[in-house]
Amino acid sequence: MALRSVKAPTSIPPGLIVSSSVINKPQSLRFASKPTASLAVRSNLKLKPASPRAAKFRCSASSSSALTPQLRDTLEKLVNSEKVVLFMKGTRDFPMCGFSNTVVQILKSLNVPFEDVNILENEMVRQGLKEYSSWPTFPQLYIDGEFFGGCDITLEAFQSGELQEAVEKAMCS
């Protein structure tokens, strides 16, 4: 049996976190420059490392929303970039969670062309998407620009045939 090497995913350095809440509120990151809506689907947002002084205040509560107007525009462009978009942990070729892998396998079994977006590459996208969709977990499947569901909903829709109908309808529109 031949072994193949797999490129390990990159991680976000711990110095990038500026603040987070004590009660599991989203972490916020500081951008090196303001994010723009013209980000490519697979681009990483440039992040500025936190100053040593800011690191002392990691536990301060933040009531601000992770979903800025610029991030909302970016997410809308991502969601509408293809007929089927999957926001997931990892990539279609290297899923980093069982739920993401399940949805990838379902889409592959239906021969659905889809765009995969690795939410582990950018914490701002990850937290903003939770607010954008009003759905707290990943993966998140979007069909024809509309939130379809997470793993459980996608699996149930696949088993009932509803997913295939939704995908076929989107591909024909």
Automatic annotation (TrEMBL):
Coiled coil: none annotated. Residues 84-147 form the Glutaredoxin domain. SUPFAM superfamilies: Thioredoxin-like. CDD domains: GRX_PICOT_like. One of its GO terms (molecular function) is metal ion binding. It holds the Pfam family Glutaredoxin. InterPro entries: Glutaredoxin (IPR002109), GRX_PICOT-like (IPR033658), Monothiol_GRX-rel (IPR004480), Thioredoxin-like_sf (IPR036249). PROSITE patterns: GLUTAREDOXIN_2 (PS51354). It comes from the Eukaryota. Keywords: 2Fe-2S, Iron, Iron-sulfur, Metal-binding, Redox-active center. NCBIfam families: Grx4 family monothiol glutaredoxin. Belongs to the glutaredoxin family. CGFS subfamily. This is (rape) hypothetical protein.
